[in-house]
Write a structure and sequence with these properties.
Blueprint: H1 9-18, H2 29-32, H3 57-80, H4 93-120, H5 124-152, H6 161-167, H7 172-182, H8 186-201, H9 203-215, H10 219-249, H11 253-271, H12 273-282, H13 290-309, H14 320-326, H15 330-341, E1 348-349, H16 354-363, H17 368-384, E2 408-409, E3 414-418, E4 421-425, E5 428-432, H18 435-443, H19 445-448, H20 454-459, H21 468-475, E6 483-484, H22 489-497
């Protein structure tokens, strides 16, 4: 009896992904896949979609189960051995607060977005790839919640991250980014998330931040980061794959894809401004500066990528040179906003230590001492005098990225001159923080005039009341969640746990 030849992975993958579809008979195709055509993208042959990993369901569950066994073993060991006591300092935990409040909810939104794509793409291969990524994103948020929940037992500000994500002013930055992508069509969504964010820029989040977690003794976060990073590598490859697929399908797709790349590069970059502040200022031990990370993961990597894509007629995203020029300034400007408004935040801030400022001087020799050290030294003196600086007003937020107007004209050598832009639409004025955000607004004003901009909503009385305590209650912030780190509940407990003398009175329980 002849033995049947075993099928290789490629053939098994083809049978899985190419044998699931059928041509509709009692409904027209445009009703079955209503979102396939309206963006102007032309698909001539879905079978040309190639998943370089050829990941089948059985192998997917096997790989992920093996990773989860290792991940949860480390997490359990970390919890059982009070690993939270071994981090560099309680101030480091403030970076994790922003992560669980701002980044983790995006994982869930990405899960929903890719589940939608798995239904709306007509190609079977694309359906399977998006379904796998949707499951990945759901797994990511679960592991992040499980990891960081251990810290929630001992530190402030992590008790209600998903409620906060939907309401809090600084969390409107990541929320508006994902809302923008999810309210676009399926091809724009996958260009935004899989290419512009995952392929171009996600390494700036996961690699330096997880390396920073390791340097700060946070092995639990390191483990979930590297467990997710193997998925992210696959997502990045799929992101590049979808771009090449679209560009090779029809020449008319090229200008549409270029336009999306321009838009979502800038939107992703502005979102990562939060990461720059976390990386440079909120990690007690920072192994890599934002500027160094930008050089490695964007300037070098993206330069090589777009050289490759140039044969399709694709160019580097608009305003990429602005982003590179801002690398010397971005983290300093964003963290200054966090510092000035942390009394209305779910994390604490403080003036950088002398050691940290020396590190910043070393990493930013052309800018920190000249433009930013004097500001921190002034704020340090104010704190010593009992006049710790908090901005008592409400900032003017950008209509697109929703970051307060903190950015300056560094491209033209005017780092103290704000890049405040104003556009008019149907008789009303709209404010943006830069040429990049203004360009996005003026290309789709109907979309961005609908943006829920937090300071405007607070002024209109839509955020719990007229006073700061009313708004903080609406956010579900407790009294000790934000403000100055020195003297905070977190610092008092940290000193108590380590047998140190507190300068701020009796210790409190978080």
């Amino acid at each position: 009896m002849a033995v049947k030849k075993r099928l290789n992975m490629r053939k098994r993958y083809e049978l899985l992904t190419r044998g699931l579809a059928w041509e509709p008979s009692y409904q027209p195709r445009e009703k079955v896949f209503p979102y396939e055509d309206f963006e102007g993208i032309k698909i001539t042959d879905w079978d040309k979609w190639e998943d370089p990993f050829r990941l089948t369901a059985d192998s997917y569950w096997k790989y992920q189960a093996e990773k989860d066994k290792k991940l949860y073993a480390v997490m359990d060991s970390f919890a059982q051995n009070d690993g939270f006591l071994n981090v560099s300092d309680a101030s480091y935990i403030n970076a994790l607060k922003i992560f669980i409040q701002g980044v983790s909810p995006l994982e869930y939104q990405a899960h929903r977005g890719f589940a939608h794509l798995a239904r709306q793409f007509a190609g079977e291969g694309a359906q399977i790839a998006c379904q796998m990524q949707s499951i990945d994103e759901l797994r990511h948020i679960q592991t992040q919640i499980h990891t960081i929940s251990n810290y929630n037992k001992y530190f402030t500000g992590m008790h209600d991250p998903f409620h906060m994500h939907d309401r809090v002013w600084y969390l409107s930055v990541p929320k508006s980014f994902m809302d923008d992508a999810r309210t676009a069509g399926p091809f724009e969504f996958i260009t935004s998330i899989s290419f512009s964010f995952e392929y171009l820029l996600t390494n700036l989040l996961f690699v330096p931040f997880m390396s920073g977690a390791a340097h700060n003794g946070d092995m639990s976060t390191v483990t979930f980061g590297f467990s997710a990073q193997s998925d992210e590598s696959r997502h990045m490859t799929l992101g590049l794959g979808i771009i090449k697929f679209l560009l090779e399908q029809h020449e008319d797709n090229v200008p549409i894809v270029q336009k999306w790349m321009d838009k979502h590069f800038w939107r992703s970059y502005r979102l990562l401004g939060i990461v720059s502040a976390m990386q440079d200022y909120m990690l007690t031990e920072s192994p890599l500066s934002w500027k160094e990370g930008w050089k490695i993961y964007f300037e070098d990597n993206a330069g090589a990528l777009f050289n490759d894509l140039s044969r399709y007629g694709i160019k580097m995203p608009k305003f990429h040179e602005v982003a590179t020029a801002e690398a010397d300034h971005l983290s300093h400007q964003v963290y200054s906003v966090f510092y000035a408004f942390s009394h209305a935040a779910g994390f604490q801030t403080t003036v950088p230590s002398a050691k940290k400022m020396d590190w910043l001087s070393e990493k930013y020799p052309d800018t920190f001492d000249k433009y930013y050290r004097p500001r921190w030294e002034m704020w340090a003196e104010m704190e010593k005098e009992g006049k710790r600086f908090f901005n008592g007003g409400l900032p003017l937020d950008c209509q697109v990225c929703q970051i307060p107007m903190v950015f300056t004209d560094v491209v033209n050598g005017n780092p103290m001159k704000p890049t405040h832009r104003v556009s008019e639409y149907k008789g009303d004025k709209y404010h943006t923080c830069s040429d990049g955000c203004r360009d996005i607004f003026e290309n789709e004003p109907e979309k961005y005039v609908q943006a829920l901009v937090p300071p405007q909503q607070i002024f209109q009385g839509n955020c719990g009341g007229e006073t700061i305590p009313d708004v903080l209650n609406w956010y579900h912030f407790a009294a000790d969640d934000g403000g100055e780190y020195h003297g905070s509940t977190d610092e008092k407990n940290w000193k108590k746990w380590h047998g140190e003398q507190s300068d701020s009175g009796s210790q409190e329980k978080a």
